[in-house]
């Protein structure tokens, strides 16, 4: 593509803007969401194939996805891939890479813009799948879909930016050019908790950079992932660039991670699996001719610190929103509130009071802002931590199963106060609606406690003392620090996202460095005659 054409394409693309959230207080929007839920419910229980190249493949074995608010309701049955299908997908992805890498960055970006447009047109349908498959509230599902749209719009523009010549030092008698070329076939492994946004983000970043991918969605959320597979097909993405391959992590996941022809792995999930993936990927398989690149975003144990000079109401609002949004199942969720002793009782009281006002119930109803946890396994694991928490501190509210006739996996929003900074519920990721409240002697102690875990993902500080905020900016060791606001809700383009230490490789998704992880830079230097 000539420089002129490149400039032309670029100028046709409007500046990036975050997708606005839907205002569900508007009756028409409520109607639209109800209709979308109804439509998706009409599609439940079907069987879905793998997408391997242009082929739709079934295997005779299925992953059954169910509604956590009503476990008897089957979302769908999804073909379960094994090693033979993983090999087929690898063959297709390798073949597709040879032509896809030659497609111009502008054209590749166009696929993302087109997919974003179609998703925007059908956004409530995508959200409805998440309401039913993973128990997101309307607002949380809407935010997940908006973020997915943002990722496509943002990475499309980022690829256009990267396709411009990088500024290099001019040497006499030489013409030097640096360009960002793709890596090869990548394996994308997303988690269930942002089953659309994170899947779309990692996948489209890889694709727009010129790679082909095999996507192994979480076994909890193959349904929403399938909707995205279909969308990519609908916008005409060449077959084999994207392959949809649900399957067990321990077999198909491990097999592909170790495969000599996998060039990179984009993983988001728990610390345990992330470390395993990293370790397996570091072993060189026979025939492998590269060091695999691993982008691994993992867990968190995120804290909100409140000092005696803070706006206590704002702090309590921020703690409750961050601790219990999507039932505490966000990597960025506030699972520890660290409050200096002078205002400890006051803040604790406010947090408990607000938490008691959360409306627990079916996520299909707009008025409910607190739904079930994702699965039986999560339910059991969180309840174990609730019991540990009852021994490690003072139960302030919650601590029980919330019973429903549908036997949904509901756990009450739970607050445990007076927790020791070294207690298990203070240090281990619970990934559910359990907030540990810790009393700090003073500001310095609070900051020290905030840094006492192996993680380093998000954190927030509420204070009106500018010096302390500056100190926190320097010393609170997390990838995403928020001052006087909640610690969840990162926005693409505004809050590049990723954590330190055991929270991962700090890839900064939704930021200007992200696509570099999916590319390699080639420098061509020509002697000018
Ligand atoms: P998980 O680690 O259980 O699973 C993540 C993915 O890995 C899933 O798709 C799973 O099927 C797959 N997997 C499991 N075993 C595998 C194996 N042996 N080889 C390859 N793949 C395998 O995590 P989860 O329960 O899906 O998600 C929750 C976790 O994700 C939490 O720890 C949360 O903090 C973290 N998370 C982190 C971020 C971030 O940006 N840092 C964002 C969202 C979620």
Notes on the structure:
This protein is α/β, with parallel strands linked by helices and 529 residues long. The chain contains 16 helices and 19 strands. It has helices spanning 3-12, 27-41, 83-100, 105-121, 123-134, 138-162, 197-208, 222-234, 249-258, 271-282, 312-324, 341-356, 376-392, 424-427, 443-450, 466-475, and strands spanning 46-48, 50-52, 55-57, 62-67, 70-79, 174-182, 185-189, 212-215, 242-244, 264-268, 293-297, 302-306, 334-340, 394-397, 414-417, 434-440, 458-462, 480-483, 519-527. The longest helix is centred in the first third of the chain and has 25 residues, at 138-162. Mean pLDDT is 97; it is low at 1-9. Residues 189-194, 198, 218-219, 249-250, 253-254, 257, 268-270, 273, 276-277, 297-300, 331, 429, 431, 457, 499, 503-504 line the site of nicotinamide-adenine-dinucleotide (NAD).
Oligomer classification? single chain
Number of helices: 16
Distance between the termini: 24 Å
The fraction of residues in strands falls at 15-25%
Rounded mean pLDDT is 97
Shape: globular
Strand order of the largest sheet: 14-15-16-13-12-17-18
* Secondary structure category: alpha/beta
- Given as residue ranges, the uncertain stretches (5+ residues, pLDDT < 50) are 1-9
Describe the structure concisely.
This protein has helices spanning 3-12, 27-41, 83-100, 105-121, 123-134, 138-162, 197-208, 222-234, 249-258, 271-282, 312-324, 341-356, 376-392, 424-427, 443-450, 466-475; strands at 46-48, 50-52, 55-57, 62-67, 70-79, 174-182, 185-189, 212-215, 242-244, 264-268, 293-297, 302-306, 334-340, 394-397, 414-417, 434-440, 458-462, 480-483, 519-527. Helix 5 (123-134) crosses helix 6.
């Amino acid at each position: 593509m000539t420089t002129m054409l490149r400039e032309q394409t670029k100028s046709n693309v409007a500046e990036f803007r975050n997708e606005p959230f839907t205002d569900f207080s508007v009756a028409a929007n409520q109607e639209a969401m109800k209709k979308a839920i109804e439509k998706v419910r009409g599609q439940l229980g079907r069987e879905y194939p793998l997408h391997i190249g242009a082929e739709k493949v079934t295997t005779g074995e299925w992953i059954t996805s169910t509604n956590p608010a009503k476990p008897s309701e089957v979302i769908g049955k999804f073909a379960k891939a094994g090693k033979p299908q993983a090999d087929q997908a690898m063959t297709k992805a390798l073949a597709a890479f040879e032509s896809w890498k030659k497609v111009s960055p502008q054209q590749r970006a166009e696929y993302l813009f087109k997919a974003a447009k179609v998703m925007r047109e059908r956004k409530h349908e995508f959200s409805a799948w998440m309401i039913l498959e993973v128990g997101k509230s309307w607002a949380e599902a809407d935010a997940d879909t908006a973020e997915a749209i943002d990722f496509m719009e943002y990475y499309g523009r980022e690829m256009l930016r990267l396709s411009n010549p990088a500024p290099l030092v001019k040497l006499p008698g030489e013409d030097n050019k640096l360009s960002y070329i793709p890596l090869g076939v990548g394996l994308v492994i997303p988690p269930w908790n942002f089953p659309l946004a994170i899947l779309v983000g990692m996948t489209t970043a890889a694709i727009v950079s010129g790679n082909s991918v095999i996507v192994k969605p979480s076994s909890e959320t193959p349904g929403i992932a399938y909707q995205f597979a279909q969308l990519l097909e609908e916008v005409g993405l060449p077959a084999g660039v994207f392959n949809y391959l649900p399957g067990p992590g321990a077999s198909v996941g491990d097999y592909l991670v170790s495969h000599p022809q996998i060039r990179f792995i984009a993983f988001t999930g728990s610390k345990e699996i992330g470390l395993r993936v990293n370790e397996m990927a570091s072993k060189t398989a026979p025939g492998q001719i590269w060091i695999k690149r691993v982008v691994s975003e993992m867990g968190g144990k995120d804290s909100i610190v409140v000092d005696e000079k803070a706006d206590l109401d704002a702090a309590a609002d921020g703690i409750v929103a961050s601790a219990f949004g999507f039932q505490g199942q966000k990597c960025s969720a506030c699972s520890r509130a660290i409050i200096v002793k002078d205002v400890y009782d006051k803040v604790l009281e406010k947090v408990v009071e607000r938490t008691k006002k959360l409306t627990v119930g079916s996520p299909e109803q707009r008025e409910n802002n607190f739904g079930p946890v994702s699965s039986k396994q999560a339910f059991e694991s969180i309840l174990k931590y609730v019991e540990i928490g009852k021994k490690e501190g003072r139960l302030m509210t919650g601590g029980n199963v919330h019973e429903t006739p549908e036997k949904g996996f509901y756990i009450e929003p739970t607050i445990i106060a007076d927790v020791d900074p070294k207690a298990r519920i203070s240090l281990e990721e619970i990934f559910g609606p359990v907030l540990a409240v810790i009393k700090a002697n003073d500001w310095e102690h609070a900051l020290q406690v905030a840094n006492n875990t192996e993680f380093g993902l998000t954190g927030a500080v509420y204070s009106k003392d500018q010096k302390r905020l500056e100190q926190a900016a320097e010393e609170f060791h997390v990838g995403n620090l928020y001052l006087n606001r909640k610690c969840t809700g990162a926005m693409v383009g505004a809050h590049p996202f990723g954590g330190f230490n055991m929270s991962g490789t700090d890839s900064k998704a939704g930021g200007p460095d992200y696509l570099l992880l999916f590319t390699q830079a080639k420098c061509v230097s020509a002697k000018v005659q």
